Amino acid sequence: MANSTKEGRIDVGVLNPGELFGEQIHYQIPRFQRRYIWSKEKHWQQLWADVKHVADQCYSGGKPNPHFLGAVVLQHVYKGVGQTQTRLVVDGQQRLTTLQLLIDAIHKSYSERGYEPDEPLCELVWNEQKTTDGNTAHIFKVWPTVIDQPSFRQALSDESIEDPDSPIILAHKYFCNEVDKWLDAAPDNLPDKVEALLRASRSLLHIVVIDLTPNDNPHVIFESLNARGESLLESDLIKNMVMYEADRAGIVDGTTNADWLWDFNDRWWVTEIGRGRIKQARIDIFLNQWLIMRTAKFISNDDVFLAFRRFYTDEVGLPIHKVAMDIKDIGETYRSLETEKSYGGFVFPTYLRRFLYRRRIMQLGVITPVLLWLYSKAIPLDQMEKAIQALESHAIRRMILLNRTAGLNRTYVELIRVLGDSDPEIAGDVIVRFLSGKGSNVASWPTDSEFEEAFLNYNAYRGLTRGRLRIVLEGIEQGLRSDKAEEQEPRRNLTIEHIMPQAWRGNYDVPGVDSEERDRIVHTLGNLTLVNQPLNSAMSNAPWVGKREELKKHSTLFLNKELVDDYDDITWGEAQIEDRARRLCRMAIRVWPYADQL
Q1: Is the per-residue pLDDT at 255 higher than 60?
Q2: 101, 154, 278, 436: which one has the fewest Cβ atoms less than 10 Å from its Cβ?
Q3: Angle between helical axes of 282-295 and 320-339 (0-180°, round to 10)
């Protein structure tokens, strides 16, 4: 092992796995490190191909060339007499973790075939129990960061697998399969093949090891080193800085359990979400929105860490653990809002559940920082309901008018700034006043007359996605239900039905009808309703008298009760569509009122 023999000295050496893991030693991956992210296509396949190539050379009797695996940066940790020798893994944790999984897979493969080498590879994976000073984690030569510890333990210990999709579990399984195939290709020569693979994996893989003294700061080195290679998550860099500042303040050290300081270790937070090829880990999305909420400034996705550093260094004026606790608390609110499940005792009134569902359908994630701000304050219940109603009405009305959403993110940032300068006791009033005062098309709140014109005339079926059109009709259905109705909430995910079918010619012909106008009006809201799929299929392009009878027999929606009760069984045409549109519009205005009605 390359050792630091005096203060201020950094040793560099080239070691093979036998030398790196041969001693009773514990390589600990600190909490500021990222999760295990190496993958089959980019990493495992290439590593196995390299190891197999060296093993093939050994097996064929040729003179093998050592294979260079890259570099790792380690740092001594002061330990008392009788305690396990320990290094922090400052850089190279992906490489060390993968190498351990490969070595263990080789050991399992030859063991299952009954082969017992003089120097078994398990000695490079496990420390002797007597050297672990009572710390169960020290039985492992390498110990990953928190999120990966259960999967790593299960992979190496043959415990039941709780997360079969964990990259660590998948990597171990991949190497086991590949080693099995390689050994089984010549079963009659198993001892020679095993010894070739042992020699390759123990002695002929070379790693540059940079060994730091305990006085070097691993957090700063980590940030510098990871400006290259696999790009770090913005959250990795923020976590690194939080731990570094907490370490400097004496709040934690590199080996202390610090879940209380940074509790974002489960898979939900690191799962990448988004549309198309643009995806981000949830934790990065949240930290961006937390920063927007706290700074009232627009922050781009690739500027989150730098914005956090500026915020902490120049603006916040709080110790790092207070900032971390705020991130944790707001994180519980964020997760509650995103999953619509309660974390940290979060409470969901009915109006908020409706809004969160509609926000999700509208893909209105840019409004989240406003919600985080509202739920970080002690706001009276009536003002909170007013605030949510205003935000929803503003968004739904703009959607009906087919207003573009580009630029709304900056509008919401401005709103946070205005809220920050106001008394939280009147937050709802502030939001109503702010949104009703936006005159530009980028953020204007459509008036009743503007809303009605769009409701009656716009080609809603073609202009809105099915989900967005559905939430409009669901909202009207909910508004039609009185408190005497057995169910206050309409069923979701019903299908959208054209009352006069799109293929209206034949059953809906009227002499002298303007075909072009009818083709337009058939897609407006006055001609649309909700039904379940079997009823939709049964009605299809049937004439109005048949559709009306089917709706009367089978539909329980108030939308359809009014339809069959208020319109006769003879005609369904332009006049009826326009009349029904006006009725539905009046209800939509009640459900999503303008500022002067809130």
Answers
A1: no
A2: 278
A3: 120
